[in-house]
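One example copied in:
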Amino acid sequence: MPILSEATRSSARRMLLERARALRSIEFGPEVEKTFTLAEIRAGAAEAGIAAWLAGEVWPYARAQPALYTISASNVATAYEIDRAFPRGQTREQRGYSVPRADRRAAGSTTLYVGSSEKIRQRLKEHLWQARPKTYALNLQRWCPHGDGSVRVRVQPILNNRERQIRQDLEDFVWRELTPVYGKQGGR
């Protein structure tokens, strides 16, 4: 029996058509964004700043609201400084925390990271402030370079979809479009 039998291909076509239909029916809330200077990130302001920003009128959603997000440097020079400071050459045990992989093919991109999460406040804190040692996140406050640049965080709420695979499809599309410097395409 071949790996891709006619029955397997037919089943795959049906599944992909169902996912395409689900993508068409998704509704999104208004995109929100905030800029943090490198100095604010180094000082740990992102820890409290994320919760304060994603509260009230700006983020009227439940705590477990699925969302897509991007983290970008303000310009190419800032992206370069961040990339130079990125903790390479050490193991997680030596560093004391985990970081995502750096993608050399994304050289010149100002997009640092693309992701999705149901717990957006927590996930952004992990990226801009600190995460638990085994959680792969930017942990930017731990190694943020000195400089005048800034980092922009954009969040797009996904209102009517709880299916993880559809969110992953959206995240992968944004990842391919923006070519982030850190992270990887695809789910865990």
In short: The helical segments are 6-24, 38-42, 45-53, 76-85, 92-95, 120-128, 140-143, 164-178. The chain has one domain: 28-178. Residues 28-178 form one domain.
